[in-house]
Amino acid sequence: MPAARSRGETLPKPRPDAYVGLLGLSLGALVIALVFAYLNWDGIKEKPKPVQMPAGGASRAPVTPAPGGADPGATPPGGAPANAPPPAQKK
Fold it and tell me: Distance from CA of residue 65 to its chain's centroid?
């Protein structure tokens, strides 16, 4: 069993190492990031306006299909089906 320390003995303070330097560096980076975030927030003068519903009693927005999920049998906006042959040209 090791000997007990005497009450009068004092140990030297531990020296700061590289990890203490990294802690200080990260604290400085956080402070700088907060300053830039505040400057960005303060730079936005006009706040977004609330969305207004259209007049005429429309309670829902029109349904749009998801990209790439179109019905294969549906006709495109041109009027002809997508897999139809091109129209014959007159001579």
Answer: 25
CA–CA gap between residue 47 and residue 3 (Å, rounded): 70
* In the chain, where the domains are located: 18-43
Q: What is the DSSP string of 17-66?
A: -HHHHHHHHHHHHHHHHHHHHHHHHHH--SPPPPPPPPSSS--SPPP-PP
- Tokens of residue 33, six digits: 């990031």
pLDDT tens for each residue of 66-81: 666 655 555 556 665 5
Give the DSSP letter string of 69-86. ---TTSPPTTSS-TTSPP
pTM across the whole model: 0.41
